[in-house]
């Protein structure tokens, strides 16, 4: 049973990431990477628009609040570290500003794109999460 539940969660996660990418593309973003693996962790989506580079975590939950709360401090720290490593290996991106976003997927609702939920200098922005 656990294996089946894990596969179901994996499929739901992939669908959520697909929906998040569709939302991003429809709003003018270019997808630079999906499920990007680094030695420090995985980044769900990396997107670029203009001179902004966004590292995006996607959460699928039953409620919007549940999706926000599922982005735990440990995951936030992982995303910050993985993004720093990814950027460090790409010297041509020094002129891009970095942003950390969260896209919440809730059944029956449009995806919610929360912008700037983390700061590389200060961690989570308390008013968004």
Number of helices: 3
Q: Which percent band covers the strand fraction?
A: 35-45%
Known CATH architecture: 3-Layer(aba) Sandwich
What percentage of residues falls in helices of 4 or more residues?
25-40%
Q: Overall mean pLDDT score?
A: 90
Strand order in space, largest sheet: 1-2-3-4-5-6
- Reading off the top of the CATH hierarchy, the class is best stated as Alpha Beta
Global structural class: alpha+beta
Q: Can you tell me the residue ranges where pLDDT is under 50 for at least 5 consecutive residues? A: none
Main sheet record: 6 strands, mixed
Shape: globular
**How many β-strand stretches?**
6
Distance between the termini: 32 Å
User: Which radius of gyration do the C-alpha atoms yield?
Assistant: 14 Å
- Indicate the CATH topology: Trna Endonuclease, Chain: A, domain 1
How many domains? The number is 1
* Series of H and E elements: HEEEHHEEE
């Amino acid at each position: 049973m656990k294996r089946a539940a894990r596969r179901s969660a994996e499929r739901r996660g992939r669908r959520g990431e697909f929906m998040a990418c569709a939302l991003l593309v429809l709003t003018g973003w270019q997808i630079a990477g999906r499920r990007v693996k680094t030695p420090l962790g995985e980044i769900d989506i990396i997107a670029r628009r203009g001179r902004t580079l966004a590292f995006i975590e996607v959460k699928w939950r039953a409620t919007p609040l549940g999706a926000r709360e599922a982005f735990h401090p440990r995951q936030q720290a992982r995303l910050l570290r993985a993004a720093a490593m990814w950027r460090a290996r790409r010297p041509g991106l020094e002129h891009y500003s970095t942003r950390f976003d969260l896209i919440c997927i809730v059944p029956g609702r449009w995806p919610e794109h929360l912008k700037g939920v983390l700061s590389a200098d200060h961690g989570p922005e308390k008013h968004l999460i």
